[in-house]
């Protein structure tokens, strides 16, 4: 079953999610004054005022706001956690590849030392190093 969508109280108050309590109170005061004036002429302003009151009732109380934010931003937090886990996996993979490549270099050097002998292998590796630089 699909999860019901929460009402975006921040957009009702026309505020960013990081707004502080003073900003919430100022936005509520400004918007409620405008809606009270409009309510005399427009019935939809009454409904907007109810939504505004509901948004203010939740966002103006720290505990209710934390609970609301946890529910409202859960999907965003889950996405950020997935991205962090994916980045950690990429870092682990890159580290593992680097260790494997270094192990391969050491193995090739050891095999060359065993097969060619010390002097020939040293000359070969110096030649390769000179060619790479």
Automatic annotation (TrEMBL):
<feature type="domain" description="J">
    <location>
        <begin position="8"/>
        <end position="72"/>
    </location>
</feature>
<feature type="coiled-coil region">
    <location>
        <begin position="70"/>
        <end position="97"/>
    </location>
</feature>
<keyword id="KW-1133">Transmembrane helix</keyword>
<keyword id="KW-0472">Membrane</keyword>
<keyword id="KW-0812">Transmembrane</keyword>
<keyword id="KW-0175">Coiled coil</keyword>
<dbReference type="Pfam" id="PF00226">
    <property type="entry name" value="DnaJ"/>
</dbReference>
<dbReference type="InterPro" id="IPR036869">
    <property type="entry name" value="J_dom_sf"/>
</dbReference>
<protein>
    <submittedName>
        <fullName>DnaJ-like protein</fullName>
    </submittedName>
</protein>
<feature type="transmembrane region" description="Helical">
    <location>
        <begin position="93"/>
        <end position="116"/>
    </location>
</feature>
<dbReference type="InterPro" id="IPR001623">
    <property type="entry name" value="DnaJ_domain"/>
</dbReference>
